[in-house]
Design a protein that fits this description.
Elements: E1 4-7, E2 10-13, E3 16-17, H1 18-25, E4 29-33, H2 34-48, E5 53-58, H3 65-73, E6 77-80, H4 83-91, E7 99-101, H5 108-117, E8 121-124, H6 127-140, E9 144-151, E10 173-174, H7 178-187, E11 191-197, H8 208-226, E12 233-235, H9 254-265, E13 271-274, H10 278-281, E14 285-296, E15 301-305, H11 314-318, E16 324-326, E17 336-342, E18 351-359, E19 366-369, E20 391-395, E21 398-403, H12 408-413
Parallel strand pairs: 4-20, 5-6, 5-13, 6-7, 7-8, 8-9, 9-10, 9-11, 11-12, 12-13, 15-17
Antiparallel strand pairs: 1-2, 2-3, 4-14, 14-15, 14-19, 16-19, 17-18, 20-21
This protein binds pyridoxal-5'-phosphate.
Length: 421
């Protein structure tokens, strides 16, 4: 459920008409709904109650400071994967003891930043990282709380680029070696082993892979405790999928996911952490774009939009589907027309959809890509020197631009011409 609905014949974000925002902000732009972000965050906290838990929003899915502040004020923790994301979490007012640091390639500078700024835990992904963290923490006279990310060798049955829990993936340590790695961690100065971490992939549309992974984590918890480790926190990662094609897909609900967590690890007395990104941010955002031209081609018509692959890369990168809707509500029963929906970038890969049935749109009309809140704006680039798309946050009947579109002058000013030219 989200808060993007037609009212009086035009698509709204909560109580604001998207067409009104388009008038002021110009297209394309991302638009997020506060009510939807809030609702999705609360679904998770409710699904995990009464277990002691923290829902750490995966910042990489949508990292605008205003969004982070919205969630942070509800009590959310944050899952960061870089020093830059750590800075974002802090800048949004989230205290260090609610920030979890994930990622396979944390640098010593990033470790130092998080240790001195405050951190809830590092999710360590390899032995070299563990040794480096021990050295950095010791040199600062600090202790780094850690979990170790285990790779449970489970097939997440999702897109290959976002499956992370198979043994051939770069993530975590093989679960079979956990005993050995935990023993070394316990022996190193500057580290405090507090738990186990697992994250098997993104956009999972079935519970089964989670069930397999969490059952292995439960077994490992008992084993490591028997070996003398004080395992008191389980970070179960993110990854719950969302319906991108409405009407055809029904991924598991957060309540079902919460029940699964209770069933598999609920009796261990551990504090539970989860790191959802997409399920909180995905359906909380749309990308609004304007039709530039309708071009009649050989056997197919193209809808050429002012948004392109640099603004929303998921279709060209993952072959992802996004529902595309007309901002002006089509009359019920009106004929549809089949379009290839494309952007202006000079690549054939700049195609959002092929042979998509849509209302008979014309130049100047507005369309919205649904479910564009996650991995949308954060993955945008300025390819073709197209300015980064602005972001807008709606709250009830008002809205604010939370990242402005850069001017061409600002973009050009980032380059420098060396003195010999
Ligand atoms: C990407 C990622 C997440 C979030 O995944 P979603 O599919 O957006 O829920 C959580 N944890 C880690 C370690 C990740 O890399």
């Amino acid at each position: 459920m989200d808060h993007f609905l037609y009212r009086s014949g035009t698509l709204h974000a909560e109580d604001v008409a998207l067409a009104d925002i388009a008038q002021v902000v110009q297209t394309p732009f991302y638009c997020y709904s506060t009510a939807t972000l809030t609702r999705h965050y609360k679904l998770f906290t409710e699904a995990l109650s009464p277990l002691p838990h923290m829902v750490c929003f995966a910042i990489k899915s949508l990292s605008n400071l205003a969004v982070l502040k919205t969630l942070g004020e509800l009590g959310a923790g944050m899952d960061v994967v870089s020093g830059g994301e750590y800075m974002r979490a802090k800048a949004a007012g989230v205290p260090g003891d609610r920030i979890v640091f994930s990622g396979v390639g944390k640098t010593r500078d990033e470790m130092r930043m998080a240790l001195t700024g405050g951190i809830r835990q590092f999710n360590v992904e390899s032995e070299p990282e563990m040794r480096a963290l021990s050295e950095v923490a010791t040199s600062l006279g600090l202790v780094a709380p850690i979990t170790i990310r285990v790779n449970p060798d489970v097939d997440a049955r999702t897109h290959e680029k976002i499956a992370t829990g198979k043994s051939e993936n770069k993530f975590g340590i093989p679960i079979a070696r956990a005993s050995e790695v935990y023993a070394e961690a316990a022996s190193l100065p500057g580290l405090e082993v507090i738990g186990i971490d697992v994250h098997i992939g993104s956009q999972l549309t079935e519970l089964e892979p989670f069930e397999q992974a969490y059952t292995k984590v439960a077994d490992l918890t008992r084993q490591l405790r028997a070996e003398g480790h004080d395992i008191r926190r389980l970070d179960l990662g993110g990854g719950l999928g969302i319906p991108y094609a409405r009407g055809n897909e029904a991924p598991p609900l957060p309540t079902e996911y919460g029940d699964l967590i209770k069933r598999t690890v609920g009796d261990l007395g551990c504090e539970i952490e989860i790191e959802p990104g997409r399920l909180i941010s995905g359906n909380s955002g749309v990308l609004v774009s304007r039709v530039i031209y309708v071009k009649e081609g050989e056997g197919r018509d193209f809808l050429i939009l002012d948004a392109a692959m640099n603004d929303l890369v998921r279709p060209s990168m993952y072959g992802a589907h996004h529902d595309i809707v007309a901002v002006e509500e089509p009359e019920p029963g009106v004929d549809t027309h089949t379009f290839d929906v494309v952007g202006p970038v000079c690549e054939t890969g700049d195609t959002f959809a092929k042979a998509r049935p849509l209302p008979q749109l014309k130049a100047g009309d507005l369309v919205a890509f649904r479910s564009a809140g996650a991995y949308g704006a954060v993955m945008a680039s300025e390819y073709n020197t197209r300015p980064l798309v602005p972001e807008v946050l709606v709250h009830g009947d008002h809205y604010a631009v939370i990242r402005a579109r850069p001017t061409f002058e600002e973009i050009l000013a980032r380059d420098t011409i060396p003195e010999w030219l």
